[in-house]
Amino acid sequence: MGIDQTLKALNDDKRREILKLLKKGRLSASDIYQHFDVSDATISHHLSILLKADLIFLEKEKNYRYYSLNTSVFEDILNFITFIKK
What's the number of domains the chain is made of? Predict the structure, then answer.
């Protein structure tokens, strides 16, 4: 996914809040849902966008879904920003 789509995915308060939650470590979908006062479907939509932007990973274990940060994408963003500044 290109940098434009990645930055677009970051341009939402709820998605950034999800990323902050995942900064502390891997979380199940239900753990993430509990932090928000919106429907599970809404959070699932945001998680889907973050997945498509490669900002998070999804691991499936039996009937559970676990999400974690893809830190390499954040390194790519920092490299891109550093490149622009030069």
Answer: 1
Consecutive H or E run containing 1: none
CA gap 28, 32 in Å, rounded? 6
DSSP state of 78: H
**Residue 42 is part of a domain; what is its CATH number?**
1.10.10.10
Report residue 85 as tokens. Answer: 């500044």
| Whole-number Å distance between alpha carbons of 36 and 14 | 8
Look at residue 76 in the predicted model and tell me its pLDDT.
76
pLDDT of residue 85: 62
pLDDT digits (tens, 9 = 90+) for 11-51: 999 999 999 999 999 999 999 999 999 999 999 999 999 99
- Pairing type for strands 64-69 and 56-61 reads antiparallel
